[in-house]
Amino acid sequence: MELDERNKRVLQAVIDSYIASGIPIGSNVLAKRYDFGVSSATLRNIMAELEEMGYLTHPHTSAGRIPTDWGYRYYIDSLISVQNEAEDIEDHLRQAPPLHSGNLHELMMEASQFLAALSHCAGVVVAPSEPEGKYKHIEFVRLRGRQVLIIFVANTGSVQNKLIELDESIQQHDLNTFSVYLDEELERHTLTEIRQRLIEKMKEEKRLFMRLMEQTYRASQEMQERDVEKVYIGGASQILENPEFANVEKMRSLFKAFEDKYKLLRLLDRSVAAEGIKVFIGSENHYFEMQGCSVVVSSYKAGENIIGTLGVIGPTRMQYKQVIQVVDYTAKLVSRLLSERFQKGIER
Amino acid sequence: MELDERNKRVLQAVIDSYIASGIPIGSNVLAKRYDFGVSSATLRNIMAELEEMGYLTHPHTSAGRIPTDWGYRYYIDSLISVQNEAEDIEDHLRQAPPLHSGNLHELMMEASQFLAALSHCAGVVVAPSEPEGKYKHIEFVRLRGRQVLIIFVANTGSVQNKLIELDESIQQHDLNTFSVYLDEELERHTLTEIRQRLIEKMKEEKRLFMRLMEQTYRASQEMQERDVEKVYIGGASQILENPEFANVEKMRSLFKAFEDKYKLLRLLDRSVAAEGIKVFIGSENHYFEMQGCSVVVSSYKAGENIIGTLGVIGPTRMQYKQVIQVVDYTAKLVSRLLSERFQKGIER
DNA sequence: TATTAGCACTCTATTATCGTGAGTGCTAAT
DNA sequence: ATTAGCACTCACGATAATAGAGTGCTAATA
């Protein structure tokens, strides 16, 4: 059954009011605040209809209406018009300067805080995952004895490191030789390929380099997997400002969830493939048992390639219009910064 | 006025009970649970005395006694005996494995979570601050055009990086040359000294290297200052398990405080100079308006040098005995790992 | 047929009242 | 110095009463 124009307007009015005030909306309030040209009795009928269709509900018999998750979904898909973004963009620009990004880590942190500040929700940023074979440089630093620190520098400017322990001591000089060799090869090949070629080339001899290669390879694999560190959460306490989290138990479980960054990652990464904004309302996000929470995410790019995700987690009753704009703006901002400052496509 | 033996025992009993149960302790309960050989009436007198001396208080007329901050202070300084650490150490060992420390960042994170898990409070670790002139290696990676990524490797194995933009393009080859030069100099001098010598040596000529040196120097300064990233907080949600934070407003302010890492740093770093455990009870910590919170901190070392701080933030009513042992144990554990795996004193 | 006024009914949230019990402080006896 | 006894205090929980917002239904109206 389709909604006629008037019903749409009523639904929108109810959701708008509820988002703004947080209290269930009754027919009288609605009739008074908006000018529908009909009485509250008619509005009651309409609202009952909308409830039957699943867009609205009410907490108890004598309370006003609140949107269901389904109602929010319809609201976002059909009722939000993003016509007035111009005025908001100014708001953003005024607050934009903080994003200066001395290095990738900082940029991610700042972006998450930026999101939080502007959306009054928790800001979440998933750092770029380095596709295999995107290393620019691999460096070995001998710390002492057989301990070697391997440093991976990716095209995006991301730097990761791992400490390994070799079977036998090795000179810094030899490490440098190997590093130069690797860098040259990296121009044309992925780490996996290099490893393959090395295995073929030097069967038994040069055991030491072979070992080092193995360790390097394994370390790089570990880097890939250790995604957990890549989730930046900013301004989580923002979310507590919302009255719906006055319930202590809810808060607790929410913060527990924030600490489980792996799950967060799964949740956010679902949108990484596609471009544009995605909104997951309440029960729509399955990875995460967050009651009463919505997630607004977008992907960001470096050059033409989508490389990461960023967004916002907040109460289901959030200012979707604004939040969507903020997330969109931030994604574009981060994309621009990354594209400008790091990496130009595949070119080296 | 000094406390006689019996009063001490009563004070200890009250605090022990209150820490264990969280509810104010009345004279009857005390007389029943402990065997003082006196009646509840006498205990009432004693408790009134202790209250007058400032060690105890009660929330309202007809409630039992609870410790004041002062009472806790006395409890910790004079009443806690750490005789039975043997039994607890076993507990720790069973849970110890998780600390494997692939790199410094991981070690810090794991340590903070370790602290949280064992103390049921929030675990906080301040990463080693690199004293000037402790760099092992400085690497330059040309990303594209005039963008260069500077990577600092410290003796502790800590790796930091910063992206800079030069006035003119520079070849990777030249960067390597400079890196080799710096590394050699770093064997004997601090960055500040090297800069000085460079300025004297090559007045006008070699402008490019001079510029690079300036940028490198400035970047290293910034690294020093950007301490904020160095605070690792683990298991903050642990703290919510405590009933005293059922109050939403309290929780909120606490989490806000956690996000202000700079203040946290100030608070924790007060203990960095001295060795051993420090306890700040409730109002005793001034940097931080955390009502009802206590902080237990210790410093950790690499070799002989104190290089960082770690500890726990929890409700004033915490299991001091256990927590102190946990913090002590963790500090030693981290010290051992750092001493073993990285840096051997000043030797290179 | 769609809208509206009117009204009975429902349910929450607020406030008031009261009893209960743990605990204190004081006094007088030991 | 210790203790028994007792009056007094005060938070806490349960219960009851009230107010008010809002609904759903019915019958009247345009």
Q: Please, what is the average pLDDT of chain A? A: 83
* Assembly status: homodimer
What class would the helix/strand composition of chain A place it in? alpha+beta
Radius of gyration of chain A: 26 Å
Number of helices of chain A: 12
Rough outline of chain A:
elongated
Number of strands of chain A: 10
Task: Describe the model.
2 copies of one chain form a homodimer. The termini of chain A are far apart. Mean pLDDT of chain A is 83; it is low at 343-348. In chain A, helix 2 (27-33) crosses helix 3 (40-52) and helix 6 packs antiparallel against helix 12 (320-341). The longest helix of chain A is centred in the last third of the chain and has 22 residues, at 320-341. Chain A is elongated. Chain A has helices at residues 5-21, 27-33, 40-52, 69-79, 85-95, 104-119, 172-186, 191-201, 207-225, 248-259, 261-269, 320-341; strands at 56-57, 66-67, 122-126, 135-144, 147-154, 159-165, 231-234, 278-280, 293-302, 305-315. Chain A is built from 12 helices and 10 strands. Chain A is of the alpha+beta class. In chain A, the strands form 3 sheets. In chain A, strands 7-3-10-9-8 form a 5-stranded antiparallel sheet. In chain A, strands 4-5-6 form a 3-stranded antiparallel sheet. The interface between A and B is large, with 44 and 44 residues. Chain A binds a DNA duplex (30 and 30 nucleotides) through residues 24, 26-29, 38-42, 44-45, 47-48, 58-64.
